[in-house]
């Protein structure tokens, strides 16, 4: 999608149809991925396939390897062993920018928003739109407000472009963070505990945002400790324990009780 102040903003066409995964066997495939930090093995032979428009609930206890896996996918870490593929092509990310160029975005738990700036400015932070006035280029706040409004409308969020982030609810803040991922036409969005420490009403808003991404063909990996949230929106659940995948199955073929047993070790494998 163009993000120049002089360019058009074909939101429905570019953000909808292009993300349906046409011509893509998978959004991302991991095969035998391991990660060592010195003598500590954080991930052991992890294999995972993510399809277009699929929501995967990634669950596990603290220290299970969830964050390490997500950081490898997002380009923050390089795997010690194993292979990553997008479609039929092997990829190797040297940093988050490489992951973003390949359609992978991450929404961190702290959201990385600036409370003193507006929703629109946060959406375009680091990718500000500009326009030419004589020999100068200035930030085009009007264009950013218009395009941010279109993104919020697409996400069916009540977030307003000119509102300061400090005055927003948890659900609205998530909408700002998710809208930011839409600028790069993401095929995969990684979400780290998006429903932690927010109200029941705001949880419903965030889950609806995830469903909106799914409807547009965007794959989502939802890292969460909240069993009801995962079972509400996920197509599959992947459980990590001590760095290994102990379950990867359709949500319809498991239960909260089984997943709890897998997380704690009461059930070895499923």
TrEMBL record:
Keywords: ATP-binding, Nucleotide-binding. InterPro entries: AAA+_ATPase, ABC_carbohydrate_import_ATPase, ABC_transporter-like_ATP-bd, P-loop_NTPase. The keyword Nucleotide-binding applies. Pfam families: ABC_tran (PF00005). GO terms for molecular function: ATP binding; ATP hydrolysis activity. Coiled coil: none annotated. Residues 28-267 form the ABC transporter domain. The keyword Plastid does not apply. It comes from the Bacteria. PANTHER family: CARBOHYDRATE TRANSPORT ATP-BINDING PROTEIN MG119-RELATED, SUGAR ABC TRANSPORTER ATP-BINDING PROTEIN. This is ABC transporter ATP-binding protein. It comes from Neogemmobacter tilapiae. The lineage of its organism: Bacteria, Pseudomonadati, Pseudomonadota, Alphaproteobacteria, Rhodobacterales.
